[in-house]
Amino acid sequence: MSRLKLENISKNFGAIQALSEVSLEVAPGEVLGLMGDNGAGKSTLVKIIAGNFPASSGEIRIDDRPAHFNKPLDAQTAGVEIVYQDLALCNNLTAASNVFLGREAMRRIGPFNILDYPAMNRRAADLFKQLKSETRARDLVRRMSGGQRQAVAIARTLLSEPKIVLMDEPTAAISVRQVAEVLDLIRRLRDRGISVIIISHRMPDVFGVADRIAVMRRGRLVASKATATSSPEEVTGLITGAIETA
Asked: Where does the UniProt annotation place the signal sequence (predicted)?
């Protein structure tokens, strides 16, 4: 069974064809590395999966059931979460407050509802423990490393018990040690049976964590194959067009 199945997804922006009949499958607990040059259509495809805008044609299926997304909330309800490249974190808030941003836990005192900080701290700490991250619930985000910030963003996705997590350049602009932390976080998601799609330009990171690699060029999918059967040289050739398909 496929966790996510895309069938002939196309997207037009006026006269511009951003995607052309992209068909792709992701299994439960599989990490897919989505690669391609700038303008290849990677971000457009991920935004369609995330519900940012609808496909012009084609079908999305989750767990073999048709899925129709008109807005991001529709995708979230279906089990799709996304971690954007900028992480969308508030530097002046704690890790726990960022995990619960927009979904805050409340408790009632007399006629008033107030934020339940102890409950949010406990739940966030539990999520960080599940991810085997050293991030602490009460720490301010502005004092965190890039790896810890990614842990906060990933923990936030786990609140809704997602089926699919989309990650846009998760290892960009962080140190080698922090890259290792983030790749471990991605493996933890896989170990929980969550399907992960990562957009990345960093070849070593993709080959280090992805079970399968999909390559896009000029809005078309030109390869989707097991990482073990490919190589950085082949992927580079597919990205540049030196190799047509694989």
From this structure: none
Query: What percentage of the chain reaches a pLDDT higher than 70?
Result: 100
Q: CA angle 222-224-228, nearest 5°?
A: 130
Is 90 exceeded by the pLDDT of residue 241?
yes
Does the CA dihedral 203-188-122-168 come out positive or negative?
positive
SS3 sequence, 127-149? HHHHCCCCCCCCCEHHHCCHHHH
What is the distance between the alpha carbons of residues 104 and 97, in angstroms, rounded to a whole number?
8
Superfamily of 4-79+162-240 according to CATH: P-loop containing nucleotide triphosphate hydrolases (3.40.50.300)
What mean pLDDT value characterizes the chain? Answer: 95
| Phi/psi at 85 (5° precision) | -60, -40
Angle CA(90)–CA(194)–CA(197) in degrees, nearest 5?
70
Residue 86 has pLDDT above 90, yes or no: no
Per residue in 154-206, pLDDT tens?
999 999 899 999 999 999 878 888 899 999 999 999 999 999 999 999 999 99
Residue spans per domain, the chain: 4-79+162-240
